[in-house]
Amino acid sequence: MKVVILKSILGLGFVCMLVMNYLANALPLNNRNTGEISDLYPSYFTPSGFTFSIWGVIYILLSIVMIRFIITPQSDFFNQYQEKFVYLFFATTIFNALWLLAWHYDYMVLSTVVMILLFISLIWIAFFLPNLSVLTKTTFSIYAGWISIALIANITITIVKLQVPIFTNHEAFWYISITCVGLLIGVASLVITKNFPYFLVYIWAYFGIFMKHLSQNGYYLDKQMNIYNASLLSMFIIIGIVMFVINDYKFLK
Q1: Domain ranges for the chain
Q2: Which tens digits make up the pLDDT trace of 165-185?
Q3: What is the dihedral of CA 106, 54, 149, 229, to 10 degrees?
């Protein structure tokens, strides 16, 4: 009976999350789609639109994880899943939906708080829960990686909206600071945890940022800034390749 309840709770949360994501842009909520709101607060850290296609990958993987979760026999359920995983997964579905509401109705500070809670839940699953299947660990590592980037962007956009003088008057400096912090977080996570899927999301995001700055519709057409972005991206790729070889592809084994 307990297994049925856990499956029902998580199934309901997952469906609610999918419905909210659909309605957010189908209606759309508050007459604005998700991307339009981001465009209202231009930030050097926001990547090109194509980068957000990673959401499709995330939702496909989450759906596969969810189907596998639902069809797991009761007799084998607790051999494969901890209750803590179910509760944390459920929490991510709620925070995901709540973030959309806060974002679409322009409550940027609230959206940042909710995203922090989503980030903590995902990191807990991806890095601290033992005995996850490769599929589940990979899925939540990619999800956590993207939310790590999204959280930095969300904080940046919130600062832009609040018009914090020290930020708005020194945008290039803060952009460089933020991207360096992102690089340090990404590299540190790879060195400490050997979680390559999480790290690969950083490469994807920084590639999107590089392409946004490089495009004619980008934020900063200065040659030196483009060289800086290219250098950051190259560092991510080189470090990733070196660590992958040094660790003998252990994440995949």
Answers
A1: 2-252
A2: 777 667 788 888 899 999 999
A3: -110
